[in-house]
Amino acid sequence: MYTDLKTILANAAANHYAVIATSPINLEMARGMVLAASEKNAPIIFLFGQNMMRRHAKAELLIPMIKKLAEYATVPIATCLDHGNDDERVMYAFRNGFTSIMYDGSLLPMEENIAKTKAYADLCHQFGMGIEGELGHVGIAMNGDDKKGIYTDPKDAANFVKQTGVDCIAIAVGTAHGDYPAGIIPHINFDCIKACKDSTGGMPIALHGGSGSGDENIMKAVEAGINKVNVVTDMFSACRNELISQLKANPKMDYIQLMMEEENAVKKALEHWIDLTGSAGKAALFKPVNKIGLLTSKCAIGQTE
Ligand code: 13P
């Protein structure tokens, strides 16, 4: 069922688990991911990055595909513009049927980040959409951006949540986007997660840069209070590695079979992440809102048990 970020993450925060947020850029990835979520009976969030949509498939193609798959799935499925940082992209998400946006003002001075995030939060809520803000910048791993010690201040997080009215806050706790240099596993500041959870009164918290962060770290981060784990690079790698190994073994492989192998590989990879974050079985906590789940985002709000 096509639903909204706020409903999914409020349920995750109330029941102490995290939902995987990931990026299907084509039909094979989307099918594999929806199958994984369905078989694990887990809610899921689909992220579409603004640069990804500029480089490759556009929302005009992606969102109808996800909505169609969501008609057949009984698990809650939300869509989110990832790292939106300008009016043009936010309006693009509005026009194209996303159920939420992540506004990234993390590189702005705090007051400006608060003011812009609040303006977008007001707009999103008027239209029944959810919004995630970011406080404390999550950088890029290969740039050495997983700097220890640059963590979100829990007091600032409380102020940010209060002033902006966001539905979820992404914080900096030691992870970074993309692949880490070989052999590096990030040091995650679990105390910072716990302190931000307390200071914000239990607000849903997002962890960006999930890929390569280590299974134990992810499980501990969820225990500390993370409710949304963004994992993109590892899903792309699972697809690429599968294609390489299949084509190495059989360079003339039937193309449809090859695509089905990709679908299976992403499904398997996602199932592992769903298990790590405790979201398996949690779709049972959401009431189905109609038979086939053809919903507007507004209809689903408040439909949790
Ligand atoms: P990874 O690609 O490192 O998993 O990060 C994804 C992310 O945080 C998207 O916002």
In short:
The protein is of the alpha/beta class and 305 residues long.
Structural descriptors:
alpha/beta, disordered C terminus, single chain, binds 1,3-dihydroxyacetonephosphate, 12 helices, 8 strands, 8-stranded parallel β-barrel
Question: Percent of residues in helical segments?
Answer: 40-55%
Globally, the shape reads globular
The biggest sheet, with number of strands, parallel, antiparallel or mixed sense and barrel status, is: 8 strands, parallel, barrel
Rg is 18 Å
Structural category is: alpha/beta
Across the major sheet, the strand order is: 1-2-3-4-5-6-7-8
* Strand/helix succession: HEHEHHEHEHEHEHEHEHHH
- C-alpha termini separation: 16 Å
DSSP, total strands: 8
Low-confidence stretches: 290-305
How many distinct helices?
Answer: 12
Residue share in β-strands = 5-15%
Mean pLDDT: 92
